[in-house]
Amino acid sequence: MKKILLITYHFPPSAASGTFRLLGFARHLPTFGWQPLVVAPRCLPWEPIDPQLVEQIPAEAIVHSAPYPIGAPRLLRKFAQNAIWLPRAWSACQRIIKEHRPDVILTSGPPHCVHALGHYLKRRAGLRWVADFRDPWISDGSERPIGWPQRFALSWERRVFRNADLILANAPNASRMFMRAYPLQGDKVMTMTNGFDPRPRAAAELRAHDGCRLLHAGEIYGGRDPLPLFEALAALNKESPAYHLDILGRNEIDLDGVLRERGWTDFVHVLGQRAYQDSLAEMGLADILVLFDSPGRTVGVPAKLYEYLGAGRPILALAENNGDTAAILRASGVLHRLASPKDAAQIRQALGELSQAMRTAGAVADES
After folding, report:
1. CA dist 301 to 110, 317, 325, Å?
2. 60-116 residue pLDDT tens
3. Which of 46, 97, 163, 231 has its CA 20 to 30 A from that of 341?
4. At 105, is the secondary structure helix, strand, or coil?
5. 272 strand-pairing partners
6. Among 279, 261, 281, 263, CA closest to 271
């Protein structure tokens, strides 16, 4: 088998969203004749862990855990949180290249400082290098002013695009944005979306005996605000108390406090982190899956979108109408509705339309 060196901050037992793309690479590359050699920290102190994910790593993969330096000075960890792992990763990569002689290197970010390893390893070992972007780095299609840290990162981004042999983007708008930002390197850019493992799909009709159960699986972060959704549910439940929302995963904000303060604990339930397989099972049992995207974002998609598509359940997507998330949902054929992430009235309307569409679909299925 040919060998590919995968360098990433996210790999099992980490349960961070970035883990699943790299785990997917490791699982499926052997089918195409490639043996994965993985360098990653075993875990990062600020991210969730799911030990069951380790069971999905294929037998062909060789994983080298380069420990994150938890004992580094606090000030260094504050200002160079991700970069302080690079020296240990560099040493591990050097050993792997000497012992296993890979044919290709793939670095995956964010954090995008990992691409510096690909840059220097290509120069030192003469290997072909693929830079995988799960999200944009500095170039994101906006015209915002940037300070000196961003200018430093931009100089590195330019270096990556000049020197990598292939640039992978995980969504069509991201590819187009990269091509506009780097027209001379546009022929290097390729779209490779995330995916899901096929599994049995549940029926689309509402479960009338249990009301309508919405589910959000995953951490709420990145400026994503659940309050407009909560407000929409509160308004709908004043008319008919049929909707409730379960939230799985860790969150950056104190949802319990907000819910108690607003009196919403009777229809929104924060259930905490679940193992990956348990989350998949919960997705298949939900009436509607809720997807949060960052307000204003049109480039890139939440990684959770693909697991939702695999569940086959209707999706309420709080995302921009002209973004990658909307385009992928339209192409998927999955029953869905879109609403602006910050507009409670629009979310309420979209949820009502989605519920009606599900009832119609269920009635048609019964007649047939």
Report:
1. 14, 11, 5
2. 999 999 999 888 787 777 777 889 999 999 999 999 999 999 999 999 999 999 999
3. 46
4. strand
5. 248
6. 279
